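QA checklist item 7 of 12: single-chain prediction sanity check.
[x] sequence parsed
[x] length recorded as 419
[x] structure emitted
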Amino acid sequence: MLRFLSTGESHGQALIAVVDGFPAGVPVNIEQLNKELQRRQQGYGRGSRQKIESDSAELLSGVRHGTTTGAPITFMIKNRDFENWQYVMSSSPVDTSTPEAQAQFEKKKIGRFRPGHADLGGTIKYRQKDIRDVLERASARETASRVAAGALCEQLLAHLGVEMASHVISVGPIASSLKTDELKLSDLRQKVEESEMFCGDENATEKMKEFIKKAWQDGDSVGGVVEVVAAGLPVGLGSYTQWEEKLDGQIAQALMSIQAMKAVEIGDGVNSASLPGSQVHDALYPNDIPGQLPFTRSTNHAGGIEGGMTNGSPLRVRAYMKPIPTLRKGLESLSFPEFEAQTAHYERSDVCAVPAASVVAKAMVAIVLARAILKKFGSDTLEEIKDAVERHRAWCNELPKRGRAESSDIEETPEMEQE
């Protein structure tokens, strides 16, 4: 089974990502992978940390001469800012009597909780004496590891005929009016790459930037909605047989695990709750075009998933991001360890990270989809998986012929004729 683990702290030496169960024979485009890491750092509203870091992944294992071997794959993403945190984030005991160490510890000290972060719950759960022990791992800096792993999975999916894209739907009350279901994914990606907000609607992009600028001036932060689209998925990924096998459940869990995400919607999930079934479910029609599935639909309200499985329509899923809880103007909070009234601590942060969240969301969906494909079609080599996927697609496309042939083989009995 495909597994992904990450480790490392926000201001530690490096972030590490390990992808286990990845098939052999997949060419790795490290430039494309690093492009995704760089996109995660972009977008209007990001903080000064992005000017310090210039993320790139170094492959440590599982890839030889540019091709995966079937062994666990390890990426390392170094934190360039670590040189300014060597005493505070040292893994070894530190001599705190030196002036340099004392100055750094004093500068980086955290004595107040930040509402909306993991600070309070994590400090109590692990009985820590320093909030930084929680902050460093809970930080969204960790998502760089996810993007590296997800970019690798997206390259595998591309070899299997699956195409992906992600974009910003809204920031605060400013929403895109772009009809993405009418666009090719290649055209959507082009529009997104031309936008500083990773939004395909040029007018909405400028309004979003103004909204973010106002929030920055007010010492506030903003959230928004991102969408991930995947086309070309084989029918039947996931399962209806057990709760944890349902693909929509797995996607929701993966997206909800991203820092600051508070809701997930697949297809028209939110609106469908207030509509009659006749306006929600996607009717089926015959499709006689050779080389295609024998059915088609005029709508995709289900977002490509029915009964916990892919149904042949493009996957569409949205993730809702709350405003970043680190505010320059601060919220009312408590000191630690005294638990006395204070203003929340301010750690260098973004005003808006919604564009970056669209990159992370795509990475997480790619990991889930790659895992589902490998579970259904095998996971040893790319060649075997491609063959299995192509045979499955051919089998699905030939269903009407097969059904007619099987029905003609049934011998009619007198009883059947009577019926």
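[x] summary fact logged: The mean pLDDT is 93.
[ ] second reviewer sign-off
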